[in-house]
Predict the 3D structure of the following.
Amino acid sequence: MRWGIVVAATAILAVAAGGRFMIGVVFDEVLKAFSLDHATLGAIVSISVLVVGAGQPAIGWLVDRLQARVVAAGGLACLGIGLVVTGRATTVWELVLGYCVFMALGLAAVSPVTITPLVSGWFVKRRATALSIVNAGGPLGQLAIVPGLTVLVTVIGWRYGFAALGVGLVVVGVPLILWLLRERDSSEVDEDVAFGCSTRVALGSRAFWQFGVGFFVCGFTMAWIMTYFVDYAVIHGISRETAGLGLSLMGGMSILGTLLTGAWTDRSHNSIPLAVVYALRGIGFAFLFVAGANPLFLAAALAVIGFSWSSTTPLTSALCADIYGRRALGTIFGLLYAIMPLGSAVGSALAGVLFDQTGSYTSSILINVAAGLIAAVTVATARSTPLFERQPVRESRPAPALGD
């Protein structure tokens, strides 16, 4: 049963990942459709991720009090509506409504903030591994969904592609979430569910803000890839389809990186694996800096960035569960995770402005190199000592009748 929950949660995050990448896949087409410059569309993307970030604490609070599957189903419905509105938009204000309101609120609800407390309730000893598998849904969506979306928008256009995906999410996705996702039954809950520190204690800890620096950098660097990579590739004479395959390569490497670093964290119970992930993020952008139009160098850059792509969230969430306990984990992780979209907003806007000023992405790539290395140093010194009195826990197993 518990591994079935992991599969369902992974699929949900895979679909959400496809929605996040859609604007980057058609960035140049949206520029033409609304007669926008890079800075303006980058600002719109920034507004969207700011809304995602602002919604995370509220989503975490709801998950602590309601069923996560209800929150996730509502978010997926909102995301689907936003895709339809965005695809049919004819004015900038309609674009903002669809992309920055409906899609953003939907993505806020269909996120690791919703999934982390649910999955954490089913696991103790292998929590980081389980969360890593779930968060591999992001790169899985990147690997399996993004190329399909690229082909779809090439064949029928980005407007119809957005609308078709939106309708599919509402008609198919929402019922599946309500059917497949399950909270742990109250009679089976581990003894540690009632234990943990308060949100105030978590906010006062040094580790919270060290992880926050990491999440800011994670969002900052991810924004460049999701928003500008395809445009960067096209400028260097690489086709949209080839760029989409490059993102798929990154997704495949991300799955590998997520699973390996999750197992490493389960053994080490410290922040060193997370620090290595951020260092690789900076190194990957350094490879991108020297790549230009060279396909081998470009593939190497995407492989290294991909290895570090999705590991940050499960490793951070597992460390948070160890340090702060599960009592207020949804709210605590929601507040922390909200920092990532803030970083994305800054990164997206800054890269657009720098491109309009310099005519290239060179400056923003170098800034991403430095950001990754700074995050690595910051996170490496974070202490993972629990801030609450840990109780003996028993990881119960579901009865054979449940089909586990």
Remarks:
- Residues 206-235 form the longest helix (30 residues).
- The chain has a mean pLDDT of 82.
- Residues 10 and 134 are 4 Å apart (CA to CA).
- DSSP finds 19 helices and no strands in the chain.
